[in-house]
Amino acid sequence: MSFTIRVIGTIRVGEERVAELISGIGLRALVGGGVVQAYGDDGRLWFEVNSAASIDHDDVPVSMSVPGGELWQVNVEVKSGEGVEEQFYHALTQEMAGAMFDESSGQVWPPRLSVSKIPARTPVRALSLAWYGFYNPDGPPLVTVLMEGAKRWLGTPLVRRYGSDEPLRYSVEKDGADKLIQAWREADMLFLFSCLEFPFSYGSVTPLACVQPSGGMWEITLAGVADAFMDDPGARLSLQSFFTGVAAMSGAVYATAEVEEGWIWSGKQLFTQGGRSGKPRGVFRLGFPSLLGRQDSAREIAKHGLLGVTSYPTWWSWFGGGYLPLVADRLKHAPSSWLVTRTDAGVLVRLSELPATETELRGRLARWLGRGWMPASLISRNLRPARVRPRP
N or C end of the chain: smaller count of CB under 10 Å? Predict the structure, then answer.
């Protein structure tokens, strides 16, 4: 039995990396002539992988959801359907930040995000996603990046209502996406949104007016239910593609995925009686524009923006731009249990396969954390800027 698997994504992979992925599933890789072949212990050829080729969006199967920008395709010619090859092309799909298409069955992997809803008033762990970067006036609006990322990798419009004050004034259904961009551009102090459906609840985007007072930096946050991603590897891969995709499209220099105990899912949103906000704990200081042109406004605060890396380990972290050289040595000598994935846009660091809280991560990394999970010069503590921070 032979068939072809097409893997399409935004990250081009070379023959050496393909050979590493093949070795990672226990097969022997042979490189030559623009093809990487995978052999079993019995000497049989299991599959061969052709070199990555650039393709147009028009050539993507209609059932696949892939990101915008330049696309690369890798064909996997399966010679013996033993099942282990699935491990390879799932790993290759993750490496290319894309999706795979089985020409024999029409199957697409990963499927669009699909998680089982949970009953109202259920205790849960919160998932806090956050992205940070330097504002690029030539780039797409930050709210557009978030919406497009959700459509491409999660299969959902994500945003339900939005505005600067509670209750949120506008809805995507009634006012449309164009009004969403306009409202973000016109917001002065806050820009908030609620989410369309489980497992996401709400989020925020730094208003355009606050970017310059925040040292030219921005923050995007999104809160959801971490427990929704415990049982389904496909759902976690969709979330990971969304997380890294938004980071790449926005030009983020840092991003985190943090899991926290002590929350309740009401049936429509997350809430807690502990006073927590569901946002990362103090690594971004938002500046405010002066009111009515008053330069002595009490709302004008120090222009810090991103203060630094969290002082505690988080489930996932993304480093891009100016952070890459700052963390290069630490990641080069990272523990073997860390899952480090490098792309053209940055580096994703996963400290656990399943969603894990700070306490759980510290328990697993206790012997290693004596050095600090990241260099002390990069860490922000007690709302104080780190000694070393990236520049635009």
Answer: N
